[in-house]
Design brief:
CATH class: Mainly Beta
CATH topology: Immunoglobulin-like
Structural class: mainly beta
Shape: elongated
Distance between the termini: 31 Å
CATH architecture: Sandwich
Number of helices: 2
Order of helices and strands: HHEEEEEEEEE
Length: 146
C-alpha cells in the first residue's frame, strides 16, 4: 500500500470514529503486534492483536476486499503522575492493514476483546466468488478489563 493511500484510509476510518485527528496522528503513532493463523482445518482465519490499555470504543474493524483494517487510539493515563521517569508504552493512533489469504464471510465474523488482546475470527467464505471490495464493519464483544 502506497503511503498516500494509507493516509487516506486512515482519514476515512477515523472520520467515522469521530476521534480528533492531529497532523502527527495522521501518520500513526504505533503499530500493534498481530498474529494471523488458520484453525478449523483451514476454515477460519484468526487474528490476535495486542491492544493493552485500549478503550475498545476507540477501535474500528473493517474488512474491505482482501484486507482487514484495524484503526484505533490508545490514550496515555498519566493523570496522577507528578513526573514521568520512564516511558516505553506507545500511545496515540494506529492503523494496521492485514492482508487476508482468502475471501471471508464477514457476516459470521466475531471479534472479542479480553484482557488487552483483541481476537478476530473470520470464517473463510465457502463460495469461490471474488469479493467486489464491499466494505463491512465487524463489531466486537468486550470481556474482562482493558
Amino acid at each position: 500500500m502506497h503511503p498516500d493511500d494509507l493516509i487516506r484510509e486512515f482519514d476515512r476510518l477515523f472520520a467515522e470514529l469521530r476521534l480528533p485527528l492531529t497532523r502527527h496522528a495522521r501518520r500513526g503513532s504505533f503499530n500493534p503486534n498481530a498474529d494471523v493463523y488458520l484453525t478449523d482445518r483451514g476454515r477460519t482465519i484468526v487474528v490476535r492483536v495486542e491492544l493493552a490499555g485500549i478503550n475498545p470504543e476507540n477501535v474500528k474493524l473493517v474488512v474491505e476486499g482482501a484486507g482487514l483494517y484495524l484503526a484505533g487510539f490508545r490514550e496515555p493515563d498519566l493523570r496522577r503522575a507528578e513526573a514521568v521517569l520512564q516511558k516505553e508504552i506507545e500511545y496515540g493512533y494506529f492503523l494496521k492493514r492485514i492482508q487476508l489469504p482468502s475471501t471471508v464471510a464477514v457476516d459470521s465474523a466475531k471479534a472479542d476483546y479480553r484482557d488487552g488482546t483483541l481476537t478476530i475470527k473470520l470464517p473463510v467464505a465457502t463460495e469461490s466468488r471474488v469479493d467486489g471490495g464491499e466494505r463491512c464493519e465487524i463489531h466486537m464483544a468486550i470481556r474482562g478489563r482493558a
